[in-house]
Design goal:
By secondary structure, the chain is an alpha/beta fold. It folds into two domains: about 210 residues, P-loop containing nucleotide triphosphate hydrolases (Rossmann fold); about 140 residues, Beta Barrel (Elongation Factor Tu (Ef-tu), domain 3). The chain is built from nine helices and 18 strands. The termini are far apart. Pfam families: CLP1_P. One of its GO terms (biological process) is RNA processing. This is Clp1 P-loop domain-containing protein.
Length: about 375
């Protein structure tokens, strides 16, 4: 059935709400704590979450929405996990700058299961720290295969949901639901809305590009001192940065200027402009990895504060590495650049108009 019209929130009249969803909404409103929504792609998870947020809001109950869908995110830009608080946001809001972000740097959770699981708990804790106890978690559409089971099991253990809502299309959730640690959770299996339709790969890509293009609209180049930030993750978050003397030493060995380097865990990573081709030497130096600075450019970057909260996204631009500076295109204000204490590079690579480019593996 269609939801009744609400002149304050006109989006509601366009929602198709099955009777079972209405029953789930009643259970959601009666449940304190965290509710997790599960379902495959294009089953209506975001629509259900939108409706539940609306029902909680008009009932006078604040709610936090955690969006774990990296590719088709409704809170924040793609490649991130997002947290929206209602209020101050209004139901139906799909803002690019929500109350909380957690950078992942790619549009699929596969290959980043640990980061997604940790980020889900970080954002849930952030909402609770702001005094909101009713939380709604919209999970990704990854529900089949080994990676899906690992991720959903980890999320369920970390978040300890009181209510699990599964949008089940033709029994596809049965294997996953059977293995989830339900504990004190109540599980409701719900039908997929008849209005839910499968979107093509091209539609999904256009959606991401539109979100990114809007996110970059007010971005500006920002120079960051490499002495100010700590790298997290691949390819440069392996250890301590080289001193100028270390850079000169390796420049002499390789016969070409080394722009930046880090060493740790029996691994040395050097950033160069067109690294030399010396296969015999490199074959004997298994611990040595050379990166062309141009391959790093236009990779999506996450900017972190001292407490490891994501402040904003950026794109790595051509940078004066040897001068100890990296240049980032970001909407984060230059007046607050001192708050940036960490940086991560994602696998996603793109132009400022949101067009995704082939990425590079940081090996």
């Amino acid at each position: 059935m269609s939801s009744s019209s609400d002149p304050t929130f006109p989006f509601v009249k366009n929602l198709d709400i099955p009777a079972a969803w209405e029953d789930a909404a009643q259970r959601f409103l009666a449940t304190d704590g965290l509710t997790m929504v599960l379902g495959g792609p294009d089953t209506g998870k975001s629509t259900l979450c939108q409706y539940l947020v609306y029902r909680s809001y008009v009932a006078g109950e604040p709610v936090g929405l955690v969006d774990l869908d990296l590719g088709q995110s409704h809170l924040g830009p793609p490649g991130t996990l997002g947290l929206g608080m209602f209020p101050p946001r209004f139901p139906g809001d799909r803002g690019l700058f929500p109350e909380g972000l957690y950078f992942i740097g790619q549009t699929s959770p596969v290959g980043a299961l640990l980061e997604v699981a940790v980020g889900s708990r970080v954002l849930a804790d952030q909402a609770r720290a702001q005094g909101v106890n009713r939380l709604l978690v919209n999970t990704s559409g990854l529900v089949q295969g080994y990676a899906a089971h690992r991720l959903k099991q980890a999320e369920a253990e970390l978040l300890q949901p009181h209510l699990l809502l599964g949008l089940d299309r033709e029994g596809e959730l049965n294997p996953l639901l059977h293995t989830l640690p339900q504990g004190q959770s109540t599980l409701l299996s719900l039908p997929v809305s008849v209005s839910a339709r499968r979107r093509s790969f091209a539609e999904r890509r256009r959606y991401r590009e539109d979100r990114f293009r809007c996110y970059w609209e007010k971005s500006r180049p920002l120079d960051l001192s490499l002495s100010q930030v700590v790298w997290h993750g691949l390819p440069l978050g392996w250890g301590e940065p080289f001193s100028p003397a270390d850079l000169d030493h390796w420049s002499k060995i390789l016969g070409k200027q080394v722009l930046y380097g880090v060493a740790g865990d029996s691994r040395i990573t050097l950033v160069m402009d067109q690294p030399p081709s010396c296969p015999h030497f490199l074959a004997s130096q298994k611990h040595l990895h050379l990166l062309d600075c141009k391959t790093l450019e236009h990779h999506l970057a996450g900017l972190w504060d001292r407490s490891r909260h994501t402040l904003a996204l950026g794109l790595l631009l051509p940078s004066p590495w040897r001068a100890g500076t990296i240049r980032i295109m970001t909407p984060w204000p230059a007046s607050r650049s001192s708050e940036i204490k960490g940086i991560s590079l994602g696998r996603l690579k793109m132009s400022l108009n949101g067009q995704e480019w082939p990425g590079s593996e940081f090996l």
